[in-house]
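Methods — Computational structure assignment.
A single polypeptide chain was analysed. Its primary sequence is given first, followed by the predicted tertiary structure written as structure tokens.
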Amino acid sequence: MMKNGKKDMSDKLKLKGHMKAFMRWPLILSVLLIVLNLLVYYISIKAGIVVSVGILIYVGIAVVVLRCHRPFIVNGLIAFANQYDTLEKRILEELALPYAIMDMNGRMIWSNKVFAELTGKDQFYKKNVSTVFPDVTADKLPVADKKETAEISTRFGEKTYRISMQRVSLGEVVAKSELLENSNRNVSLIAMYLYDDTELKSYIKKNEDNKLVVALAYLDNYEEALESVEDVRRSLLIALIDRKITKYFSNFDGLVKKLEKDKYFLIMRQSSLEALKEQRFHILDEVKTVNIGNEMAITLSIGVGLNASTYIQNYEYARIAIEMALGRGGDQVVIKNGNNITYYGGKTQQMEKNTRVKARVKAQALKEFMSTKDRVVVMGHKITDVDALGAAIGIFRAGKTLGKSVSIVVNDPTKSIRPLIAGYVNNPDYEPSMFVDSEQAKDMVDNNTVVVVVDTNRPSYTECEELLHMTKTIVVLDHHRRGSEVIENAVLSYVEPYASSACEMVAEILQYFSDDLRIRNMEADCLYAGIMIDTNNFTTRAGVRTFEAAAFLRRSGADVTRVRKLLRDDLKSYQARAEAVRTAQIYREYYAIARCPSENLDSPTVIGAQAANELLNIAGVKASFVLTQYNNEVYISARAIDEINVQVMMEKMGGGGHMNIAGAQVKASPDEVERMLKDIIDQEYQEENTK
């Protein structure tokens, strides 16, 4: 029985490949000997007989040896295969690289010894991988038919690991299984490898920390501050400021070089910049503390550039950043990291500059650009308001003074500006082409046209963005702080955040534009109305130059009574504004949030802005936000008095404006927008309470 069993086993187990060919060599050699024997018979029959006997003896011995030793050879191969498989498993288990297997849901199945020792878990730990590595969530795992591999960096203990996960398809192995019926050929597992990147990350961090950072620092109101100090003390004030700035940055291993009387060049490591970020650039507040009798506190603006491919590009980044900081009102830090821009500071109102030199220079530059072109096209922002329209009419008068063809782009006049526009329609003193829509404007604009943008500096906010790409001569006149999105190809950009309105800026420009410029009464009314609306009847952001501009317009023929009649609301608008105020809620003690109804209203966004102004009259309210749903978007009107910077808050929602007057447009439901707004208020509230 035993022999028969062995025989059966030998018959079932058959060799293949190279081993099979090797075992057949005796038989092949026997064939060769038989052929040789035939040749011997041809030479000598007696010799052939002798050789034949020898061959028979050889073949008999070979067959006996082969049959007797074949089971031992097969068993030896089986033993070797078993030992090899055991060795392979042992090598995998004792692999120095931490290794584990999971199912497609992230549940652990098995891990090698190194992985088990590293994590402190059993080799057959059956819980989800997220219980070991919280960063490895379900969305990070390789998914069938989407991604075969996935990598994630995580911190475990005191080391940093790069976790590499690869989806392994079992394929036919599972399909041919005798234990699983109707198994899916797409059954997969996840192989997870851990690579210790601690040292690599350390070197990368050191390299990042030692990168060169270039910065420019400007004193915002240097001249104005010096004028408020006695002559004998001015040199002392300058010395104290220089010492304050130099000492501050030297504490962070920064090098300071004074370029001009109010300009500094800074070089530091990136690690120093990170430390400054943690302190939220306390130097902005420290500079303000320098006081030796100066009535005006000095403010500082800093522009930082980093992570460019060259040092020259870093400097260019810093230059762009400082321009943005100054354009946003100063007293802040702007960091340009590639295409990413970060803001710090900007919590105080910019000091108004009393000098009009800049306005005079910009007026002359505007005149030169207009003189060299045949046509002028003026446009404001979408949903043109009174300020944008008034500023556009002011530019219209400037162009007409030079004898140019001037058109104003207004697509859908809202109810708030229709009374103003009505005076120019069918008026023999004005051409029918004074007001055009976007399509008509596109037919007008070419390289011989000046496009003047008023009351906005964002290309996406303009009435017709396509016009900006149809000519090389673009002028921007705006009073809103600059954001990340700006009109970059403007030949003349006059952005003054201290100004109350675009109408104020245009009124100043008109005074220096030409000696023979004469503003008509109706035009002066529109400019005056724009200032009134944006200052909330001269109660918000109204400075000395605001009243001077208003005085100039009054002398030019503006009438307060006519303007008041033009700006009166109808009953529905008044009721909507009152409803917004009535339903307002106070959030976090100081923030008023309301929703303005938009049904059956022609200009609900204007009503929302008016409601936001009204809410500031409530005692204890530091900032107000009114949400108005219009054209499948939610318009946010944000207002503040002095303590809250609503511009920074609106920038987080894709908008902008001024410190005390800002807004945003969000494509979402009112509930979602309100939730987003409350999250931003929560952040602001926490920052205020942690100071």
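Note: The chain has five domains: 2-93, 99-205, 210-345, 357-566, 577-690.
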